[in-house]
Amino acid sequence: MEPEPLTRAVAGGSIVLRRADITTLNVDALINAANASLAGGGGVDGAMHRAAGPDLMRELSERHRGCPTGSAVITGGGRLAARHVIHAVGPRWRDGHHGEPELLASAYRSAFALAADHGCATVAAPAISTGIYGFPIELAAPIAVGEAKRALETTGTSLREITFALFSDPDLEVFARAL
Ligand code: AR6
User: Fold this and answer.
1) Which residue has the CA at smallest separation from atom 21 of ligand 1?
2) Ligand 1 midpoint to CA 134 (Å)
3) Where are the domains of the chain?
4) Alpha-carbon distance 83 to 113, whole Å?
5) Residue 85 burial (CB < 10 Å; 0-12/13-18/19+)?
6) What is the pTM of this model?
7) Does 2 score more than 80 pLDDT?
8) For residue 103, how far is its CA from the centre of ligand 1 (angstroms)?
9) What is the dihedral of CA 16, 20, 24, 30, to 10 degrees?
10) Residue nearest to atom 7 of ligand 1 (CA)
11) 21, 45, 95, 169: the active-site residue
């Protein structure tokens, strides 16, 4: 059973942490942990494409020629409950001295900015880069939470609720400490 979500008020909105498969969440936009070629893959990306159906890949290949690390692109949500999917590209962890923290912050910042540009109130994000890309979650969590806070504090933003969908209890605990 999923534990109760953890919520913190920030500016006019809130940050929510929950243990969940992100593809099941009913929000305006889901953030995907994609790669720079937008070619699909495993982890969240694989789950997102399976749940959304072929529209997602069709739109990505028709409208985008990849996406640099640290930025994001937006598509429709296909069969998902979410209206939009925002494909954010986090860095692959090397040793922490190749701009990884800045690139991760930039990926979240770009994703939240796209959500706000499209008038979204509710968005959900995974712990970008902490799976296949190997970014230590203890270092990633404060970056993710910090960017969410900054997005909610932006004057005039449409964003009201940013949910982090964590895949395990240990990941949820790390984010809870950062929050
Ligand atoms: N819902 C929520 N979180 C999930 C889900 C899910 N359905 N599935 C996995 N996670 P990852 P990355 C967690 O590997 O590290 C892909 O091949 C997972 O436990 O999905 O950014 C892309 O195409 C981890 O905590 O993304 C890229 O090539 C977090 O989501 C590459 O992987 C992120 O893990 C991106 O790697």
Assistant:
1) 129
2) 10
3) 6-178
4) 16
5) buried
6) 0.97
7) no
8) 16
9) 50
10) 21
11) 45
Q: 45 catalytic, yes or no?
A: yes
Provide Rg for the chain, Cα atoms: 15
Q: Find out whether 125 and 164 touch, Cβ atoms under 8 Å.
A: yes
* Ligand 1 closest atom vs CA 168: 19
- Residue 93, CB half-sphere, CA atoms under 13 Å: how many? 15
Distance between Cα 4 and ligand 1 center (Å): 23
Considering the chain, what percentage of its residues have pLDDT values greater than 90?
Answer: 97
Q: What is the pLDDT of residues 78-130, one digit of tens each?
A: 999 999 999 999 999 999 999 999 999 999 999 999 999 999 999 999 999 99
Residue type, 139: L
CA distance 139 to 178: 9
Helices (H) and strands (E) in the chain, counts: 5, 7
Ligand 1 pocket check: which of 167, 169, 173, 174 to mutate, most ligand atoms within 8 Å of Cβ? 167
CATH code at 6-178: 3.40.220.10
Which ligand 1 atom sits nearest the alpha carbon of residue 90? 21
First to last CA, the chain: 22
Question: Ligand 1 centroid to 32 CA: how many Å?
Answer: 8
Residue 56 has φ and ψ, to the nearest 5°, of -65, -50
